[in-house]
Write a structure and sequence with these properties.
This protein is globular. It has a domain of 134 residues: OB fold (Dihydrolipoamide Acetyltransferase, E2P), CATH 2.40.50. It starts with 6 loop residues before the first helix and ends in a 25-residue tail after the last strand. It is of the alpha+beta class and 192 residues long. The longest helix has 20 residues. A 5-stranded mixed barrel has the order 3-4-5-7-6. A two-stranded antiparallel sheet has the order 1-2. Helix content is 19%, strand content 32%.
Length: 192
């Protein structure tokens, strides 16, 4: 007597066989892989005169020194240390409320409120003179740039005594949906 697989087992086997085809059909990852954060940032935030590019800030590597890994900065980055500098990017708040005295600015928009969107070379800690209103839009901030060579939190850069200079403009070819449209519920935070 021939035995046929039960219907549940047949459905599971069919689904398992179809999953790789479905995953291949919906993926948008290019064959060469995803771009680095600094390369992707250049696609969404045009590089501007007078604003340090994320490609410049990505010129850092890790080297072993005295039994631990430490950052080794390029000459271009070392030249920025202790200088007044401008950086553009997306805000990640570190405090509760609509105004932030201390926040992170990143090369790419955050995709999760609990995750950093990129590595330490794509994040700058900002300590503002006066609180800056939180926004989903990219901003330009100016302040005293510092290299952090042994920061306990793993940060590489800090902008102190900073202030928001302007709202940055997305590149004309930037993918849609990077920031919520103005007036959308996602753009409204409760005021504390």
């Amino acid at each position: 007597m021939k035995r046929f697989p039960n219907p549940s087992m047949l459905a599971a086997m069919t689904l398992a066989a179809a999953m790789p085809l479905f995953a291949q059909a919906v993926t948008t990852v290019p064959p060469g892989g995803l771009p680095s954060a600094s390369d992707f940032s250049a696609q969404i935030l045009p590089e501007r005169a007078g604003v340090v590019s994320w490609r410049t800030l990505a010129q850092v590597s890790s080297v072993k020194q005295g039994g631990k890994m430490v950052p080794e900065f390029s000459k271009d980055i070392v030249a920025l240390d202790k200088k007044d500098t401008r950086v553009q990017g997306f805000m990640i708040p570190l405090d509760v409320g609509d105004k932030q005295k201390r926040f992170l600015i990143t090369s790419v928009p955050p995709h999760c409120s609990f995750c950093l969107p990129a590595g330490p070379d794509s994040v700058v800690e900002v300590v503002a003179k006066t609180p800056v209103k939180y926004t989903f839009d990219p901003i330009v901030v100016a302040g005293r740039f510092s290299l952090l060579k042994d920061d306990a939190s793993g940060l590489l850069y800090r902008l102190s005594d900073a202030s928001q200079v302007e709202v940055a403009q997305l590149a004309p070819g930037a993918p849609a949906g990077l920031v919520p449209p103005s007036g959308s519920p996602a753009g409204k935070l409760p005021v504390k």
